[in-house]
Amino acid sequence: MALSGVSADTSGDVGILDKERIIAKPGFNRWLVPPAALAIHLCIGMAYGFSVFWLPLSRAIANPDPSCSELTLIGALFTTACNWRVADLGWIYTLFFVFLGCSAAIWGGWLERVGPRKAAFVSACCWCGGILVAAVGVMTHQLWLMWLGAGVIGGIGLGLGYISPVSTLIKWFPDRRGMATGMAIMGFGGGAMIGAPLANLLMTTFKTDVTVGVWQTFVVMALGYFVFMIGGAFGYRIPPAGWRPEGWTPAASKSTMITTRHVHLRDAHKTPQFWLIWAVLCLNVSAGIGVIGVASPMLQEIFAGSLIGLPDLTFSQLDTAQKAQIAAIAAGFTGLLSLFNIGGRFFWASMSDKIGRKNTYFAFFILGIILYAAAPTLAGLGSKAMFVLAFGIILSMYGGGFATIPAYLADIFGTQFVGAIHGRLLTAWATAGIVGPVVVNYIREAQITAGVSPGPELYTGTMYILAGMLAIGLVANAFVKPLADKWFMSDEEVAALQAKTAAANAGPSGSFGIGKGGLDAKAALAWALVGLPLLWGVWITLRNSLAIFG
To answer: pTM score > 0.90 for this model?
Structure first.
């Protein structure tokens, strides 16, 4: 019997999760890889939809202790007699994205060494295991377990799952980098569209007089997600070193912004280009995530009675029942923004293959500045359709920014370490997750303190400040230039790094034929498995959003 680690020439010597095990054989269809990535991202994307659990959990105890009104945050972590406040639960959302950014930055280099299958497997264990720990937290009514399980352990799973397909897809689709990453990262935006209505259905099914049905929902979703994510992990394949699609030649001769060489992970963050692109992503995301956080109250306070056919009534003049009506309509607006977010990830990333990554970000910033600056006017005119369309386009560019950035990095730094470099860049997302909501929420509170009534004027200053943030991003993007030769690895260094994948595919067949083929039967089945749930989520979202227009 062969011992592990002796030689990579025989599959028996290589672990089932190891990188050498997943090098594609000649004839493999590269269109099988994006559905595998989508299977991962559609599951971890439920992080965006976790707020669906907050209100049921805030009513988990039917008869809370009378002293609960004095509860502090520390007390909420350990109480078994008081209901949790939505604000206490909301910290899980913050933990998600802080740990997503941190884990992607810390373990991005490890992912490049071990390959996407092992990283996706660990992601599935962390994300689904974290949700199961959170289920125990709900059963025992211990908020600290919810934070630890869903927020910390689950957040680590988010980071590893998010970056696991990036390097792989870019290497499989060097001719369509933007489209490839857009297809996968689209799933992260779409996960909540499937997960949130599914969670509502499950909670309704499990709800009884003594339970709100959340922990049971957690268990079912965690088990289902684990099966889906493991399927995605085992669907990953990587191309042999040096493989390229038949008939395709690198575009370096056409564009100086696309390199055919590679920068080592240890050097990427030493370049000004890394930090310029970091600022580009951070500012684009800060503006978008700030809007996502106030989308529902913004629509309610700006259009108020006009949402239910009473245009003369301001928000403060509505009674409790009317406010409940417009809150339900505003939920449809939030869902519609999610749809634009998802569509933008694929549309803009694919567009970047044609017009270039730098020009795509120029479009984000210029269009964003115009739309943010015009938003107060559109609100003042009372045009719901134009207002919704403007913010839909803004959110499409928010999503498009996430999907385009991996290809931007590959263009500048090469593909050898792009997954790890992308992981480090995601600290910009963690930063934006704090900056965006803080800017928007504090300006809104300052306006209210100053006596501004709920309405269009409450958000005017916010829109202009967000436009200013995008203007800074525009300048940062303008300074992104190709790297100097000193930053690139030598051909010998690259060959040494690629030796394992090159040796594993040695032989007369070489890499010829790998990645050919379109939507054959196997690929069609893989796409159906991820596409049908996504279409269901889109249909639910469109149905709910129609209420905005009466």
So the answer is: no
